[in-house]
Design brief:
Number of helices of chain A: 14
Shape of chain A: globular
Oligomer: heterodimer
Number of strands of chain B: 8
Number of domains of chain A: 1
Number of helices of chain B: 15
Distance between the termini of chain A: 37 Å
Largest sheet of chain B: 2 strands, antiparallel
Strand order of the largest sheet of chain B: 1-2
Helix content of chain A: over 70%
Number of strands of chain A: 2
Strand content of chain B: 5-15%
Helix content of chain B: over 70%
Distance between the termini of chain B: 51 Å
Chain lengths: ~350, ~425
């Protein structure tokens, strides 16, 4: 049953990164658009994401619940030592959700739209950056895990582990992944004339992902960050990353041929490959701290809890997934299925 | 202010804020589907307009409730890491099921909001029903997790370790039913009276009276029925607490001396230092009867419990008085509404509408007061008789800044949502819109 729980953990993580990532990314694309294209993007986002965006973001709740129920000590380390970046993520999520609703549900469309739009775009950018920083600091080797809080100062324990070069780079990397996903999604949703806007956005986002990814590797190698040195030594992870890179070429072709389904599939696979690569480098050690490593599996709850959690997840999955699939299909978010 | 107090205040503020949105998001879909059904049956355009305007309300409240709920799911761990480390696996079941129910709600809401003229009429209406039902289900599940904190069960606590964990027993803890029933009825009462009150005010101001009267009738019917049923649930809760958490009951009643045939205090000023209650109305033997169904039963007083396991008595007592007082008031006006269905002339009087407009916030004040009773009344425990709140709080210093930040954020959100709602109502009265 532990495997079922791990499967759902991985699935929720992937779906959150891809679906919510595309959703965050849409705001980033809008932020980096010219004024004319901003209004276009806003309309498209509403049409495409409107019915599904709330559901996209619930994956993080599922993720958190699986962690605290199934792997309580692992979760404990996250919430104690990464309190500040997680709080910033929450602020971002709150601002963003509220801004999305306000800008589409306000009974009058007047000047206040400007405020909502900026709130939406700004929080769309910073939230994934903080999320990425949180993930980066889990692997940065800079967390100090201790029971002796009095002996450390606030900065060393609660700030430095996430506010450092490596974590910030991972944050920016994640934001560019989001922008990549969103621009690919938007290509398929726009009319012929607007397509080139998003094609060019997706090119820039791809360049950003590759470029920042490369910088992270160099930075980590130079600063001797365990995660990075192990990442480049591990043949499986290197293979996955190379595969993800090679997929850029079929992606370009399928964009040119306007194959919406294939394009989205490829982009989703690319992002998944990168994520899986990061995941398997040290699995099951998912927190590499300064003074110790934390093995996810060693923090697993007793069997009975894992069994009940697994069964709840299977039942929940059986109810949710068909509904979600039908929702996306009904509103043609993944037109994929009909084409 | 120390770290513990700051964390507690932050939790309290987030919950007070979230509860309003969660309740409206869970109850308003029912008003919406009733209006929708009436539109389908009568094809009266007013009902369509009403449905669409309520659905906007549902959407706004749902999202704000969802994001503040997401924040809360993190805050449980961020503020109380030691609590979550041990309690997380035990109460994981209600939370994972709640996650599923919430997901279903979000999917159904996606269908409902965007499904007009796109999906079959009956299926579209039915997705609205699913929104309501799954909303209530999530509410009940979350309250069950809270019930576990009051009535911890489904594990053995041996030498400071939680062993033999049984998540299903924890889900069905002794407090879940009474708490869930009380909260569900409270949510319907509060939302019913609040929505009805807003429409009553519009009628009082002579704006689009025909529409607002229809809206008022739907909302108040839910609110009035729930308010009238609530005392039964309250009685169940009181008897349950008398058995399980006698200290909480004593604090609610500001009952210091153990006594047979204990009187019930109405009102009164509690002096926490001298442990006396002045300026109260006493009903002889009533507390013994309400708590144990026997006029001569012994009710243990606070003085017979160790001081370090007692909550802040004045807060719990005043909150309890507020809840019961306002609940009773709403019950009376629930009955007034049903009488007004016979005495139709009342609906033509402006005073009638003014009264219901003034009642609008009272249900929510009662509901928040009730949560203060149950949460403050459980202190100093976070898990009753097992773990103290001070042992669960985050080791990270400086929580006061986090508290200020959240308070600022939620204050802005409250103002923004209120402003947005006012604009919604304004647009409803605007003949050229919609």
């Amino acid at each position: 049953m532990l495997n079922v729980v791990l499967f759902f953990l991985m699935v929720s993580l992937l779906l959150y990164v891809i679906l919510a990532g595309a959703d965050f990314g849409a705001g980033i694309v809008e932020l980096f658009s010219t004024k004319k294209n901003q209004q276009l993007t806003k309309k498209t986002i509403y049409r495409v994401m409107g019915p599904v965006w709330e559901a996209n973001h619930i994956w993080i709740i599922i993720l958190v619940v699986i962690l605290w129920v199934g792997f309580p000590e692992f979760y404990n380390v996250l919430v104690v030592y990464l309190h500040i970046p997680l709080t910033l993520v929450l602020l971002g999520i709150t601002m963003r959700g509220v801004a999305f609703v306000f800008r589409h549900y306000d009974a009058f469309k007047d000047k206040s739209q400007i405020l909502y739009d900026w709130m939406f775009r700004f929080s769309s950018l910073v939230t994934p950056i903080f999320l990425g920083m949180t993930a980066g600091s889990m692997l940065s080797g800079q967390l100090v895990i201790t029971d002796d809080y009095a002996n450390y100062n606030f900065i060393d324990l609660f700030v430095q582990p996430w506010f450092n070069g490596f974590s910030i780079l991972v944050g920016v990397f994640f934001a560019s992944l989001c922008a990549f996903l969103a621009s690919i999604l938007l290509i398929g949703e726009s009319h012929a004339n607007d397509r080139k806007v998003y094609v060019s956005k997706s090119e820039k986002a791809t360049a950003a992902v590759v470029g920042i990814g490369f910088i992270i590797i160099c930075y980590g190698f130079y600063h001797n960050i365990t995660f990075v040195t192990d990442f480049i030594k591990n043949p499986v992870t290197v293979g996955l990353v190379i595969l993800s890179f090679i997929l850029i070429f079929p992606l370009i072709i399928s964009i040119k041929k306007a194959k919406k389904v294939t394009t989205r599939m490829l982009a989703g696979i690319q992002v998944s490959l990168i994520l899986v690569a990061a995941f398997v480098t040290h699995f099951p050690v998912l927190i590499i701290a300064y003074n110790k490593n934390i093995n996810l599996l060693e923090t697993a709850s007793p069997d009975k809890v894992i069994n009940v959690l697994g069964i709840s997840l299977i039942i929940g999955g059986l109810v949710i997934l068909p509904g979600l699939f039908h929702l996306m299909k009904s509103f043609k978010m993944i037109k994929v299925l009909d084409d | 202010m120390d770290n513990l107090d700051a964390a507690r205040l932050q939790m309290a503020f987030t919950l007070i804020f979230h509860i309003v949105f969660a309740c409206v998001g869970m109850v308003m879909p029912f008003f919406m589907i009733v209006a929708h059904k009436k539109w389908l049956n009568t094809k009266d355009v007013i009902y369509l307009k009403l449905t669409k305007s309520w659905q906007k309300g549902v959407a706004i409240f749902f999202v704000v409730g969802a994001v503040s709920g997401t924040a809360l799911s993190f805050e449980l761990g961020l503020l109380w890491p030691e609590f979550m480390k041990y309690a997380g696996p035990i109460i994981g079941m209600p939370f994972s099921l709640e996650g599923a129910a919430f997901f279903v709600e979000a999917i159904a809401l996606g269908f409902y909001l965007y499904g007009w003229d796109k999906i079959p009429e009956k299926f579209h209406w039915f997705t609205g029903v699913i929104v309501g039902v799954s909303g209530v289900a999530s509410g009940i599940l979350v309250v069950s997790a809270n019930g576990w904190m009051n009535a911890p069960s489904g594990f053995d606590y041996i030498n400071g370790e939680f062993v033999n964990i049984d998540p299903i027993k924890a889900l069905l803890n002794p407090a879940w039913f009474t708490q869930a029933l009380h909260m569900t009825l409270a949510a319907f009462t509060a939302t019913g009276f609040a929505v009805a009150g807003i429409h009553a005010y519009q009628i009082y101001k002579h704006r689009h009276v025909e529409l607002h009267k229809k809206a008022f009738k739907i909302a108040i019917t839910f609110g009035a029925v729930a308010a009238i049923l609530q005392p039964i649930s309250g009685d169940l809760s009181a008897k349950d607490i008398a058995k399980r958490q006698p200290i909480k009951l004593a604090a609610m009643e500001a009952h210091y001396e153990t006594q047979k045939g204990a009187p019930l205090y109405i009102g009164g000023i509690v002096n926490g230092e001298t442990r006396e209650v002045t300026h109260k109305i006493e009903i002889p033997k009533a507390l013994s009867f309400l708590a144990f169904g026997d006029f001569d039963a012994e009710v243990k007083g606070l003085n017979d419990f160790p001081k370090d396991v007692q909550p802040n008595v004045p807060i719990v007592h005043y909150a309890f008085q507020t809840m019961v007082g306002l609940g009773t008031l709403l019950l009376i006006f629930g009955l007034v509404f049903f009488v007004s269905l016979v005495k139709k002339s009342w609906w033509t009087k402006r005073k009638f509408w003014l009264i219901f407009a003034l009642l609008a916030p009272l249900g929510f004040i009662a509901l928040e007061a009730g949560w203060i009773v149950t949460e403050v009344g459980r202190q100093p425990w976070i898990i009753h008789n097992i773990m103290k709140t001070k042992d669960a709080v985050t080791p990270m210093p400086g929580m006061i800044y986090s508290f200020y930040m959240y308070m600022g954020l939620y204050a802005i959100l409250t103002l923004a949502v209120t402003w947005l709602m006012m604009r919604q109502i304004k647009s409803l009265n605007h003949p050229n819109l919609n």
